[in-house]
Design brief:
The protein is α/β, with parallel strands linked by helices and about 475 residues long. It folds into two domains: about 5-315, 7-stranded beta/alpha barrel; about 450-480. The protein contains 19 helices and nine strands. It has helices at about 40-65, 80-90, 90-100, 120-140, 155-165, 175-180, 205-210, 225-235, 260-275, 285-290, 310-315, 320-330, 330-335, 340-350, 350-355, 360-370, 380-400, 405-445, 450-480, and strands at about 5-15, 75, 105, 170-175, 185-190, 195-200, 240-245, 280, 295. Strands 1, 2, 3, 7 and 8 form a five-stranded parallel β-sheet that branches. It is elongated and about 100 Å long.
Amino acid sequence: MSSPQKKALCLYFEVHQPFRLRRYRFFEMGNEHYYYDDYMNESIMRKVAELCYLPANRLILDLIHKHKGKFRVTFSLTGMVIDQFRLYAPEVLDSFREMASTGCVEFLAETNSHSLSSLTNREIFMRQVSTHRNKMIEYLGVEPTSIRNTELIYSDEIGSWMADMGFKATVTEGAKHILGWKSPNFLYCNTINPRLKVLLRNYQLSDDIAFRFSNPGWSGYPLTADKYAGWLNELDPASEIVNIFMDYETFGEHQKKETGIFDFLRYLPDAILKKTPYNFMTVTEVADAFQPVSVIHVPSPISWADEERDLTAWMGNDLQTAAVTKLYSLSERVMSCGKEALIRDWIYLQASDHFYYMSTKFFSDGAVHAYFNPYDNPYQAFLNYMNILSDFEIRLNSECPESDHDTELARLNKSVEARDEIIRQLELKVSKIEKEYSLIQKKVGSEKPVKKVGARATGVKGKSEKKTTEIKKSKAGSKR
């Protein structure tokens, strides 16, 4: 057991925005292949960047410099949010890159698409993690050594895959039904492959900040940094680590600036470092500094979503199950096809948010599911998504047929497209010839020399007639 002074506070933040889909009508299938609401995506990104990402990043950088490296945090940036930063808010990506250069911020690997691939196929999951790891190297200059899965989804099997990929540690939910009598305030390891360390979220202390911070009806309101430090001191003295995991949008977006959330973050490091035995550590630093107290058995996947901490947020009804099943049934054909446009759409359609919007959990977690939800109800979300997925499949069948029937259909489609292109080219040529002919006609009709030629011809004709008359008169005189 570690000494009482060796205690760690691990702050971890998830950063994610999906590419939201536009309203896609049934009659557009087969004709229109662009699926995204660019205006909404840019508007939301710019809004959250101004309210959260930029001010929170500035504050954390200031705290890192102020405390000379003693304040340390961990982030996971989804592949999608990196793509949106590049499109709509490059200055945010620059600020994350600046944080990475301090050496006090760790960035975790994850699925590139913020997807549910770990629930469907090991190979797809590993491929997406590899893609994301390369993206982190390219855009942030860091190679992740630890990993988190989408929405902290974890099971014994998924953890073993992470270990097989060489990762040191992962983060997941300290759910009651897997902990039993155990505490989340210790380090654990994977049951199948103990090389993977497992950090469990202390959901009570995490949600005090993420959800209850601005609630005047909460017994802990108002929450200050000193009060929070006091709660840490009240934990079991044997506790070794406290994992505080939350959405980064907590700062300035979920909890508005006016609630004092930034002031809370500003004074938190001082309160923790001066008034508690805890030191700030990143996920990998915790894995290196502590020994697991035991394995943690998670036979069925858990997550950090909703009250149940299970998968029902994304696969809890028939709509969601049908959409997920249909989507991943196309996976191998998409990858074997290799078409860049199809792969891009395939990536964006996998975002777990699309299935989250289809949730019918109105009562226990309805407010959470409504946040940034572009749809009026889950049925509308399902129909819109399936319309898009149907068009995607039409394109896939055209580019990469599944059966002889599809092959013949694709051949006929391409034949029709080739015929249409020939007709279009011919129509352009005919139109060009008609325009040229029309210009010639106008030019000929407007030129005066044409009239002069006519007049000259008339004059010649008059002299000829005069000469003929004179010959006739001459002949008449000779007869007399």
